[in-house]
Design a protein that fits this description.
Blueprint: H1 15-29, H2 56-70, H3 76-82, E1 85-89, E2 92-97, H4 101-113, E3 117-119, E4 125-127, H5 129-150
Antiparallel strand pairs: 1-2, 3-4
Helix pairs in contact: 1-2, 1-5, 2-4, 3-4
């Protein structure tokens, strides 16, 4: 089925297709100030190593932007739970480990500086109208590329 570019939203595109494209867009924009600690840090207490992908920060920012697009009013604590995972504790049973709050916070602040996110009046963050427009525009481009590759 062919999709028209107008009327395509982020909700129409699968996350595994949209997030890398939006991350590429954020990197090309060149306005996100990547923290100095990006190559040293783990993404959570449940991890042993830092990410192998050198552009992981852009990918996480894109994933956070998409998550907040889908569900407004999400705070740092909720995002820590989203990006957390199973913490392996040796002989003891696995437990849930939260993601790094610093990474999540710096990503949301970077997206706020681009005017993609804003603080929600009831707490947490929400997407701005310009942010919604940018994300939907990328989604439309992704849908177009998908149509072109299928044809």
């Amino acid at each position: 089925t062919k999709m028209a570019t107008h009327g395509v939203t982020v909700k129409d595109i699968p996350a595994e297709v949209f997030i890398p494209e939006f991350a590429k867009f954020l990197k090309q924009l060149g306005k996100i100030k990547v923290p100095k600690w990006v190559d040293l840090v783990k993404t959570g207490t449940n991890r042993e190593l830092s990410p192998y992908d050198p552009d992981w920060y852009y990918v996480r920012c894109a994933a956070i932007a998409r998550h907040i697009y889908m569900r407004q009013g999400v705070g740092i604590g909720a995002l820590r739970r989203v990006y957390g995972g199973s913490k392996r504790r040796g002989a003891k049973p696995n437990a849930f480990g939260l993601a790094s709050g610093s990474v999540v916070r710096s990503c949301t602040q970077a997206l706020e500086s681009l005017r993609l996110l804003e603080k929600h009046p009831d707490g947490g963050r929400r997407i701005t109208s310009t942010g919604r427009r940018d994300l939907d525009r990328i989604a439309g481009q992704v849908a177009n590329n998908k149509d072109a590759s299928e044809a």
